[in-house]
Amino acid sequence: MSVRTLPLLFLNLGGEMLYILDQRLRAQNVPTDKARKDEWTEVDRKRVMNDLISTMFNKKFLEELFKPQELYSKKALRTVYDRLAHASIMRLNPASMDKLFDLMTMAFKYQVLLCPRPKDILLITFNHLDAIKNFVRDSPDIMNQVDETFRHIIEVYGCLPAGEFQLIRQTLLLFFQDMHIRVSIFLKDKVQNSNGRFVLPISGPVPWGTKVPGLIRMFNNKGEEVKRMEFKHGGQYVRAESEGSFELSGDRVLTLGTNMYSASRPVETRVSGALKNSSLNTKDNIAARTLAKEELNFLARLMGGMEIKKTSGPEPGFRLNLFTTDEEEEHAALTRPEELSYQVINIQAAQDQQRNEELTRIMGEFEIHDQPQQSTSKGDDLLAMMDEL
Amino acid sequence: MTFLLSTESSLGSHFGTSRTSAPDRSMYRRERPVPMRSCPAALYNNLSVLPLPAPGLTQFALVHGPTAQLLSAAPDGLPVSQRQLHTKDGAGPGFPLITQAYWCVLPFRVLLVLTSQRGIQIYESDGSVMVYWHALDSTDASPVQALFARGIAASGHYICVGTWSGRVLVFDVPAKGPNIVLSEELDVHQAPITDIAAEPAQGQDCVADVVTADDSGLLCVWKSGPEFKLLTRISGFGTPCPSVQLWQGSVAAGYGDGQIRIYEASSGALHVQINAHARGICALDLAPEAGKLLSGAEDSFVHIWKLSRNPHSGCIEVEHCHAECVTDTQVCGARFCDLRGSSFAVTGYDLAEILRYSCV
Q1: Does residue B330 sit within a domain?
Q2: How many CB atoms lie within 10 A of CB B81?
Q3: Kind and range of the H or E element at B12?
Q4: Backbone angles phi, psi at A304, to 5 degrees
Q5: Positions of the region Disordered (chain B) (predicted)?
Q6: Percentage of residues in chain B with pLDDT exceeding 90?
Q7: A236 contacts in B (CB within 8 Å)?
């Protein structure tokens, strides 16, 4: 609903993606002098992180992102991250990409749900941005890109009223609706139940600006307090000690959005069983097909702005596995339930400038002939073309 | 139906020393929930309840996103019938989302109103036939504004619906048939409307009978009629007011910071301030025959309060009756299922069932 949601969704999910990839790269790390040609080293890891972050914070790309627009489907967004993940020497098999996307989305869903005040979504975003800046602290150019974006966010969101933040939060929760994938790191830490729902604590500090529940004050017509009563609220809340900083740097106070993965904690997801009544009715299917055309517009615009560096010469892509073994990855690909398949539009990872231009040209053509009858067939052609890529 | 009022609060219980996480005396017990196909959207006031003539049968309406679901259930929780309603297709990209579903009880008929990102759809109470459609006017919108209708109430033969701009549309509804007419547009609010409440006008004096609330927390109190008259404005100082109720000339408002405040409608004087919840309130409901107020919030709690008017001062007073923790659930809708408040229903984000409670 809120047309200002996409940048926050993208940057926070992107932040989670970087945390996970960083952890997996470190886990698969091999000392440089001992590394074989196809093994990861510290240098490779830094290079991957730099490439990813510099692509994410590309000026043209962000310009498209920040345009006021409705949120697109998980499928469309997943395609963007798929492309982004391949903006480096790293290669991910579909099963690993699925797992990555599951983890990213469940982590951010958790953060949005537990966010104390709607405005604190900004603090969560800042936590992610602070960490991203730390990843590229040795590369001043990329740091600059991130800082620019940081300033832009403060400019765009800093003065929004509470009601607008609540609308953004509601829009995000709509995006995450019906997602109950179980993540073992969450299950172990007891922040998620075995049915996939998150644990909502009823103790701890109240949000900044909220009073601890339990007091009733009654006044007369002159405004004088005449009676005061306490009631047993049921929770065990305490006062909030301080408000997090909304400046370019500062103590955010809130820990949501900071890196919860450490080198020794493997990231596993168990995919929830099929929902009992998950069959899509016909109307949803038709709507989903119509939606795809708008999403293609969105994808073309967004990825047109994504400058992917070409890999030079015969350098091979380094494969990253999000599972512990290759066999596990294969097994995950085969056993993923149908309704959780993202059915990604497979846009070729090998960046092709010429193809991008053609895509944009076709999009331009498509926009001119904007009549229902014609656009149906043109849209279908385009969908077919995407599948062939 | 008689029941014992819990008077823990008037004993001045030692707040903070008790370590129990739930109150000792439970007046309501949990009944069989009503299962649903999918989970409700995390929107304000996301539940409407209509008791049906058939004994024990209750009808529920709630919003999932692009669809709204109507379910009728028997006391044993088994759904008797179900119906899904969709947004009327309009121009523009993306799924149009429904923001609210609400039954309007008018003098001669009951109508179901759905508000969405496109406009307002009015149906016969069982959702079988759409009687009227009103498209939202987007001419004054800037590209950064989200367009939607939200906030629904019935006052006499008028249906009031709020919009994203703060404008409130007043529709005049005939005793039967589809000739619903847009009678007036109220342009006082400057922020998106969140909720509207109404109650039957008391007596012949000019008494307030409609209150509108918005995202900035502003409350406007009106006298309904062929021309609505603005009586009072009550500022919220920037904190959104997602839910509002009207009872015997008092406005009960739930705010995004977890507070409930009760004002005298005609003067705007603050009578009660309750630090009720630890997160934003998403739903308020009233059982008018008993003066009971129900509040549900994102902190996973539902509270019931007893309102009464002090015979000496004439001011409204409040007592806490009951606290219910809906474990690990952000409540998004809460309604009494009868006029005396002997039973209530709750919906929550990520919860695929409607929870029901009734007095023991």
Answers
A1: no
A2: 11
A3: none
A4: -60, -30
A5: 1-31
A6: 67
A7: 21
φ, ψ for residue B139, nearest 5 deg: -65, -35
How many folded domains does chain B comprise? 1
Between the alpha carbon of residue B29 and those of residues A94, A196, B324, B338, the distances in Å are: 48, 26, 10, 16
ipTM exceeding cut-off 0.95 for this assembly: no
Chain B positions in Cβ-Cβ contact with residue A198 (cut-off 8 Å): 328, 350
Question: Of A261, A262, A289, A201, which is closest to residue A237 (Cα–Cα)?
Answer: A201
Domain that holds residue B232: 35-88+97-139+146-290
Q: Is the dihedral of CA A57, A58, A61, A67 positive or negative?
A: positive
Q: How far apart are CA B91 and CA B68, in angstroms?
A: 20
Using an 8 Å Cβ cutoff, are B108 and B145 in contact? no
Sign of CA dihedral A164, A207, B43, B240: negative
Nearest residue in B to A209, CA atom: B257
Asked if A244 is an interface residue toward chain B (Cβ–Cβ < 8 A), one would say: no
Q: What is the pTM of this model?
A: 0.85
Within 8 A of B329 by CB-CB distance, chain A residues are 197, 200
Question: What mean pLDDT do residues B197-214 have?
Answer: 77
Which has more pLDDT, B122 or B89? B122
Q: Report the C-alpha gap between B304 and A80 in whole angstroms.
A: 47
- A316-362 per-position pLDDT tens digit: 566 777 777 777 777 777 777 655 555 444 443 333 444 455 444 44
Long-range contact set of residues A294-298: C-beta below 8 Å, sequence gap at least 24: A294/A72, A294/B93, A294/B94, A295/A72, A295/A73, A295/A75, A295/A76, A296/A345, A296/A363, A296/A379, A296/A382, A296/A383, A296/A386, A297/A363, A297/A366, A297/A367, A298/A69, A298/A72, A298/A76
Cβ burial of A203 (10 Å; 0-12, 13-18, 19+) is exposed
Query: Do residues B243 and B331 touch, judged by C-beta distance below 8 A?
Result: no
Q: Measured between alpha carbons, how far is residue A85 from residues A72, A306, A327, A347, B215 in Å? A: 19, 12, 22, 12, 39
What's chain B's average pLDDT? Answer: 87
The residue range of the domain holding A133 is 5-200+244-263+317-331
For B177-204, letters b (16+ CB in 10 Å) and e give: eeebeebbebeebebbbbbbbbbebeee
Q: Count the domains in chain A.
A: 1
B300 belongs to a structural domain: no
In a domain? residue B52: yes
Residue A168 within a domain: yes
Question: Comparing C-alpha atoms, which of A118, A135, A110 is closest to residue A22?
Answer: A135
Q: Please give the structure tokens belonging to residue A193.
A: 């139940």
User: Residue A77 class from Cβ within 10 Å (0-12 exposed, 13-18 middle, 19+ buried)?
Assistant: buried
Greatest CA separation for chain B: 61
Spatial neighbors of A119 by CB under 8 A, at least 6 apart, are A160, A162, A165
Kindly provide the b/e burial profile for residues B99-129, where b requires at least 16 CB atoms within 10 angstroms of the residue's own CB: bbbbbbebeebebbbbbbbbbbbbbebebee
| Nearest neighbour of B256 by CB, restricted to A166, A212, A216 | A166
Q: Concatenated DSSP letters for B190-256?
A: -S-EEEEEE----SSS----EEEEETT--EEEEE-SSS-EEEEEE--TT----EEEEETTEEEEE-T
CA distance B254 to B197: 12
Establish if A380 belongs to a structural domain. no
B271 within domain boundaries: yes
Report if residue A287 sits inside a domain.
no
> B328, B330, B347: best mutation site toward chain A, by most A Cβ within 10 Å?
B328
Q: Mean pLDDT throughout A2-21? A: 94
* Collapsed DSSP state (helix, strand, coil) of residue B122: strand
DSSP code for A338: G
Question: Does A156 lie at the interface with B, CB-CB under 8 angstroms?
Answer: no
According to DSSP, the residues that pair with B320 across neighbouring strands are B305
